[in-house]
Amino acid sequence: MLNDILSVKNVVLLLMVLQFVTAIIGTLYYGNYKGSFLKYFLLVLWYTAINDFVSGYFIRYFNGNTVILYNIYQILVFCYILILFRSSLSNRKYKKWISPFIFAYLCSVAIMSFFDSFRYDYQVNSFIIGAIFIVVSISFYFSEILRSDKIIEINYIPLFWISIAMLVYYVPSIPFFVVRKYYVNSPTIPYIFYLNYFLIFVVNVLYIIGFIWSGKDQKA
To answer: How many CB atoms lie within 10 A of CB 112?
Structure first.
């Protein structure tokens, strides 16, 4: 009974519903963060939910390869996240690193396209590189905010919750994708996928908490 409930099909469906719920709640609380560059994060939430829905539909009913959708998704979302943190940082020393991060990430995408098919192979190496850059950028953000007056109201800053959620996802995802790429025959692969599903669940819950908890008209 429990195995049926926790089947991959059911878990993926529940996560898909949760992503739409997150996007809806983000829309309802849009006024809390519409005054900053974070306002475009709402588009990322809807894009994520719709992309997963479309991909799941084609896989289920047409048995199609939807890797290209996720490769395009990865590029757009990673670039947005890096630009988001660059726009949120005040420290020039930190800000000047983000643009090279974006350039290096895009270069990795271009280079990896010569080795793996952008149409049929998920760009794992580019994901790992981009995830590392995102984690470093979040570290810059935390370092800056912890030294500022914003520390007093940190629980009411939407970007703080989003940053926590991204750390929760990307830090464990780096070794996950390393294993997925280079140890594809490892018996731990199925369990690691369930860990990834759990991380997606936690990330969306943190997004929802952040939207609800954040003070109205707070600047990210």
So the answer is: 18
